[in-house]
Specification:
Elements (H helix, E strand, L loop, with lengths): L2 E7 L2 H7 L9 E3 L6 E9 L2 H11 L7 E3 L1 E7 L6 E6 L3 H16 L12 E7 L4 H11 L7 E3 L1 E7 L8 E8 L19
Antiparallel strand pairs: 1-3, 1-9, 2-7, 4-8, 5-6, 6-7, 9-10
């Protein structure tokens, strides 16, 4: 059974800059830079029929390229902070892309996403970190802004249960369409769902 999610990949140059945020926080388990991504929709553990249905449904999502803007470094978690993340500015095209993916995946029979969507790139997962240490870390690094980038596709990732975030495998890639481009009729080729 694959564990699937959709995401926008983070370019290597941006990942290298974000990796400079690593360290200086006890209780943090830092994500490897090659595994940085901007999750759009967590799908979860699904069987092969559900995986194929999700992949085909996502092929119907047609959007122009997106400009991704970072909005600083912050914590994630309402009651208890469980991650340090690079926050992404909630611009309308990104939110519309995520909402469209939610709609097409729900039509395949998948349960709705339970959490409110907060666009971010996870830098570290926190275990037992003291709130004061987290606040201190963020007071030094929280204002960090990486450069913007243009995303020209989103991907369907599969993941393995592991420590350190990843490894993630791109199972399908869905190119964004240039303005005035007609969508392709045929769905993308399917991978072997390793």
């Amino acid at each position: 059974m694959p564990r699937l999610f959709t995401a926008i990949e983070i370019p290597r140059r941006i990942g290298e800059r974000l990796s400079l945020m690593r360290g200086g926080l006890s209780g943090a388990r830092w994500i490897d830079p090659e595994n940085y991504h901007l999750t759009l929709r967590f799908i979860g553990d699904v069987d092969m029929v559900e995986a194929e249905a999700a992949a085909e449904a996502l092929a119907r999502v047609h959007r122009p390229p997106l400009t991704i803007r970072f909005a600083g470094i912050g914590p994630l978690g309402t009651r208890k902070q469980h991650a340090v993340v690079a926050l992404i500015g909630e611009d309308k095209p990104l939110m519309e892309l995520q909402a469209e993916q939610e709609r097409v995946l729900r039509r395949t029979g998948l349960a709705p996403e339970a959490r409110r969507y907060t666009p971010h790139v996870t830098l570290a997962r926190l275990r037992g970190g003291h709130p004061r240490d987290i606040a201190e870390y963020l007071s030094v690094r929280g204002g960090y802004l990486a450069e913007t980038f243009t995303a020209d596709r989103f991907v369907l990732y599969s993941s393995r249960n592991s420590v350190g975030g990843g490894p993630y495998v791109v199972e399908e890639a869905y190119d964004f369409l240039a303005e005035n481009t007609r969508p392709q009729i045929a769905p993308p080729e399917r991978s072997a769902w390793r």
